[in-house]
Amino acid sequence: MYSDLLDKAVRLAQGPDPAAARPHIAALLAQRHDDPDALTLLGLVAQRTGDDAAALDAFARARAGDPDNPARLGNHAIALKKAGRFAEAIETLQRSLVLRPGSAVTLANLGSCLIAADRAEEAETPLRQAIAANPAHFEAWNNLGVALARTRRQGDAIAAYRKALSIRPDHVEAALNLVDALSAEGRMSEAEASAVQMVQRLPGHTRAANQLGGLLETKGNLQEAVAIYATAFATGPINHPVGVNLARALIRMGRYDDAVGVTDRLIAALPTVTTPLALKSAALDHLGHAEERRELIGLDRFVKVVDVDSAPGFSTMAAFNAALEGELRSHASLTFEPDGLVTRKGQQSDDLAKADTPALQALAQIATGELEAYLAGLVRSAHPFVQAMPDRWTLTMWGTILSPGGAVEPHIHAPNWLSGVYYPALPKETVEGQQGWFAIGALPDSLGGGGTRHAYEPRAGRMILFPSYLWHTTLPFGGAQDRISFAFDLVPEGIGRAHSLKNLPGRPR
Questions:
Q1: Which residues contact 63 (CB under 8 A, 6 or more apart)?
Q2: What is the pLDDT of residues 217-255, one digit of tens each?
Q3: Can you name the residues that pair with 276 across neighbouring β-strands?
Q4: Residue 408 falls inside a structural domain
Q5: Cα three-residue angle 83-88-93, rounded to 5 degrees
Q6: How far is the C-alpha of 129 from the C-alpha of 125, rounded, in Å?
Q7: 3-state SS, residue 253
Q8: Is 271 helix (H, G, I), strand (E, B) or coil?
Q9: What beta strand segments (E) does 271-370 contain?
Q10: Stated pTM of the model
Q11: Mean pLDDT, the chain, integer
């Protein structure tokens, strides 16, 4: 009978080998191809076996056949979240709450989706409602901690994480999030003690190793940090964040050859991620391997200077550049020396790629066109930068206003792939002795400083395109005028990171 076959498929789908349910689910669907119960089981098996695309399709079909079932909506929402379709997931969960008001599970999932959609402020309400409905919901407590941490309430976040751990002491994410919150609150000894416990409890766990290694580095214990990173790096598949931290710490210790060895392993294992190229270039510079470094950074091949001569919607470049400056100066997101970034004596905006003002829209259009032209014109080769070229990407863009004496310290934009800077206007001092010029190759103090610099002259209307893994800086300038620039990145789908001024500690579940 159909019901007996369904019961057997349910038991297998929930058992230790969910794939064993597939023949039974296929038999169910052969009898009733649109049965929501069978489709839900198909989605659960796909989810448990790591086929997220198949799970999304199955849950969508189950929902279509039973559109007012809150459980079907919840399954579909979680699959939408995994696919990065946050707006649809949120809308689906809100619909589920209309059908089943006050559901703690649905409220907790809604909070998690809002956090994932970078809407942490909005997440607090449903998460608190979930906790009110079920005070023992440890994942809601963890996600509440993440929402509080991302809205800069670290003390409250610490309390939320500890509440989650009091309910579920083995909750790994809450324990790791607690370490981050303690660190952000400046409670370093507590953070280190918690991180040590996590590394002892989970040997080789990459996030725990990164946390403890970072805390040890802050104390100046580089040798111990390298040992922590190296142990995690040698455990299981190559992990990019651990490898990057290991290579960076080795450079700080002056172990440049070892750092090159780690970056070569990262490049071979993860060719789509360009951060290791930045660290390898720094190590080669310190080693004095000029020719190998020159080949890796490829200035003649990969840096492109474009003098923009027209802007859509503007009769002259002067009018466009003046409008750009005005729109940036009046933008509400401008922040003086934003935390965690490298702007000094200056302001920086949040992401402007989707701004709704004419000049910023025109600049985004120009930048997108130049990025597309760069991709189309790139000569294919075995160079690791070329091998990392993405198929799908988006634009992120932001503006910077430096006061006289200000600077943007040496940094990179990796894991993004290609970066650019545009100058609408410049202080007159920039024509004198390379003041305020754009320079590639300067290394940050955290990697020993120095570096071989290559300076590029900025001009009003000039755009400079360069690989995101190249270290770059703004040379100091004097005078009495501000220096305005717009930076932008090609953000590879699934790898890159859009520009944001928001602090994002903690991980939701």
A1: 36, 69, 72, 73, 75, 76
A2: 999 999 999 999 999 999 888 999 999 999 999 999 999
A3: none
A4: yes
A5: 105
A6: 6
A7: coil
A8: coil
A9: 304-307, 335-336, 343-348
A10: 0.85
A11: 92
Q: Pick the closest to residue 503 from 217, 180, 241, 191 (CA basis).
A: 180
3-class DSSP assignment, residue 415: coil
With tokens 């305005």, the residue in question is: 484
Give Cβ neighbours of residue 493 (< 8 Å, ≥ 6 apart): 390, 391, 392, 393, 394
Considering the domain boundaries, does residue 252 fall inside one? no
What's the rounded Cα separation, in Å, for the pair 221 and 228?
A: 11
Dump pLDDT digits (tens) for 6-19. 788 778 888 898 88
Range of the domain at 412: 301-492
Instruction: Give the span between the Cα atoms of 73 and 36, in whole angstroms.
Output: 12
| pLDDT tens digits for range 71-82 | 999 999 999 999
Residue 488 in contact with residue 419, Cβ under 8 Å? Answer: yes
Residue 407 covered by a domain: yes
Q: Where does 286-334 show beta strands of DSSP type E?
A: 304-307
Residue 484 lies in a domain: yes
State the amino acid at position 123 in one-letter form.
Answer: A
Going by C-beta distance under 8 Å and a sequence separation of 6 or more, which residues neighbour residue 203? 231, 235
Q: Which pLDDT score is estimated for 503?
A: 45
pLDDT digits (tens, 9 = 90+) for 415-458: 999 999 999 988 876 667 788 899 999 999 999 999 999 999 99
- The encoded tokens of residue 15 equal 């058992």
E strands, 207-351, where? Answer: 304-307, 335-336, 343-348
- Determine contact, residues 363/395, Cβ cutoff 8 Å: no
Question: Residues of 232-245 as b/e, b for ≥16 C-beta within 10 angstroms?
Answer: bbeeeeebbebbbb
CATH code where residue 473 lies: 2.60.120.620
Residue 226: both structure tokens together: 């390298």
Task: Express each pLDDT in 123-167 by its tens digit.
Answer: 999 999 999 999 999 999 999 999 999 999 999 999 999 999 999
Question: In whole angstroms, what is the distance from residue 496 CA to residue 468 CA?
Answer: 10
Counting the structural domains of the chain, the total is 1
How would DSSP label each residue in 150-193?
HTT-HHHHHHHHHHHHHH-TT-HHHHHHHHHHHHHTT-HHHHHH
Tokens of 202: 């989970």
**Kind and range of the H or E run holding 371:** helix 358-377
Give dist(CA 172, CA 250) in Å, integer. 29
Q: Report d(CA 443, CA 411) in Å as an integer.
A: 8
Euclidean distance between CA atoms 51 and 47, whole angstroms: 6
CA 276 from centre of chain: 16
